[in-house]
């Protein structure tokens, strides 16, 4: 059965046309679903009764079940566990703040990239989320927290650019001014650096900011902690990002986890301005959050020194606050204990990096 949260305004218009209704009914339905966040056809009072009956027979607005939620951290951060229709689970994080309400959403159940520092990577890959499953995380958190979300970051479980079509459609739905209506500047999609997908974004555009998980200044270092760097090495990635910056004229956010004795030395700080030359940059330093890996976080002293070295080199750098540690909801810590309840979901397990470009 068709899930209406999967459809753009145009697709809803075509769907209603196929049921014999004029286009404006599709626009009305779009506003009910995405602007007013209504999921019950009975509440869509300006749609004719016969249409509502037909919709309840031939379509649905499927809502992931909230299976668990953590206690609120002192700053209000909270982790949610959603159970999807096939028994798979994803985690989502709500981050309230003085300047806006942010949700950090997942795009895959697990991840195929196996970055050594990331708990999601350690789980392996189960499946991609659908567009409806991606946007529903925002709506369900709004309902529970009784807020309107102003910012969405695609920084939860999974590699967004390995689920390209569903993620781009979700970004379009979140930014459509007649629907959810978020500013594209308030949506960020974070990637490890899937080069063919970034090339696609250069050609097709994207209603979101791009963030890149850099974490190293040379290939030897980066391949040690990010296996996919062997497929898309730094020189190729940086060349593609320079082209992105040139074409879009948008700044790129770079994320850089500070790992003791691996990438936190003065020579790494010195290498960064050169690596990021000719790109309008915001560099976010991140403390390494505890996961089951044998890397250690840099000392606070080293972190401060690293930041100062970057600032002295006139790089626009900040240290990101590590929110959500109290509830295992910080960057890199998302990994449900039971990713999928039913065995069928395991059929799609694949950690085969060679197939990665098939995903986009
Ligand atoms: N796959 C995407 C998005 C998910 S990760 C990406 O790689 O960008 C979101 C952010 O959390 C990334 O910057 C990631 O590198 C970071 N992260 C992962 N594990 C971490 C850890 N243990 N400590 C701190 N940050 C981590």
Describe this structure in words.
By secondary structure, this protein is an alpha/beta fold. Helix content is 33%, strand content 19%. The protein is built from 11 helices and 14 strands. It has a 10-stranded mixed β-sheet, covered by helices on one side. A two-stranded parallel ribbon has the order 1-2. It has a two-stranded antiparallel sheet with strand order 7-8. α7 links the parallel β10 (187-191) and β11. The longest helix is centred in the middle third of the chain and has 15 residues, at 131-145.
Q: Give the overall silhouette.
A: globular
Mean pLDDT: 93
The count of strands amounts to: 14
Could you give the order of the helices and strands? EHHHEEEEEEHEHEHEHEHHEHEHE
Rg over alpha carbons: 21 Å
* Strand order in the largest sheet: 3-4-5-6-9-10-11-12-13-14
CA(first)-CA(last) distance? 25 Å
Bound molecule types: S-adenosyl-L-homocysteine
Task: Work out the oligomeric state of the chains in this entry.
Answer: single chain
Contiguous runs where pLDDT drops below 50 for at least 5 residues: 344-360
Strand content: 15-25%
Briefly note the structural class of the backbone: alpha/beta
Percentage of helical residues?
25-40%
Number of helices: 11
Q: Largest sheet at a glance?
A: 10 strands, mixed
Task: Give me a quick take on this structure.
The chain is built from eleven helices and 14 strands.
Please give a handful of descriptors for the protein shown.
19% strand, alpha/beta, ten-stranded mixed β-sheet, 14 strands, two-stranded parallel sheet, binds S-adenosyl-L-homocysteine, single chain, 360 residues
């Amino acid at each position: 059965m068709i899930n209406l949260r999967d459809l753009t305004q145009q697709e809803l218009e075509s769907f209603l046309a196929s049921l014999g209704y004029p286009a404006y009914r599709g626009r009305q339905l779009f506003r009910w679903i995405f602007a007013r966040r209504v999921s019950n056809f009975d509440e869509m009072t300006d749609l004719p009764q016969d249409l509502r009956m037909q919709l309840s027979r031939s379509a649905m607005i499927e809502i992931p079940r909230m299976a668990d939620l953590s206690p609120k951290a002192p700053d209000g951060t909270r982790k949610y566990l959603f159970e999807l229709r096939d028994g798979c689970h994803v985690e989502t994080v709500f981050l309230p703040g003085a300047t806006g309400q942010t949700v950090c959403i997942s795009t895959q159940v697990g991840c195929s990239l196996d970055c050594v520092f990331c708990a999601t990577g350690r789980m392996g890959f189960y499946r991609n989320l659908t567009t409806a499953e991606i946007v529903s995380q925002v709506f369900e958190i709004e309902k529970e927290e009784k807020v309107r979300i102003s910012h969405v970051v695609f920084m939860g479980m999974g590699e967004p650019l390995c689920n390209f079509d569903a993620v781009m459609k979700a970004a379009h739905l979140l930014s459509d001014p007649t629907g959810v209506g978020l500013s594209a500047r308030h949506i960020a999609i974070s990637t490890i650096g899937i080069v063919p997908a970034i090339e696609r974004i250069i050609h097709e555009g994207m209603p979101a900011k791009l963030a890149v998980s850099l974490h190293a200044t040379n290939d030897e270092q980066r391949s040690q902690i990010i296996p996919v760097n062997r497929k898309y090495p730094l020189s190729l990635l940086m060349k593609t990002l320079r082209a992105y910056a040139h074409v879009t004229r948008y700044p790129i956010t770079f994320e850089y986890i500070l790992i003791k004795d691996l990438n936190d030395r003065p020579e790494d700080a010195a290498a960064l301005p050169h690596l990021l030359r000719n790109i309008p940059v915001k560099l976010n330093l991140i403390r390494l959050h505890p996961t089951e890996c044998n890397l250690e976080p840099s000392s606070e002293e080293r972190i401060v020194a690293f930041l100062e070295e970057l600032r002295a080199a006139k790089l626009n750098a900040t240290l990101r606050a590590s929110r959500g540690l109290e509830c295992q909801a910080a960057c890199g810590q998302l990994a449900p204990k039971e990713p999928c309840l039913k065995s069928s979901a395991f059929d799609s397990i694949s950690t085969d990096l060679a197939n990665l470009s098939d995903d986009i």
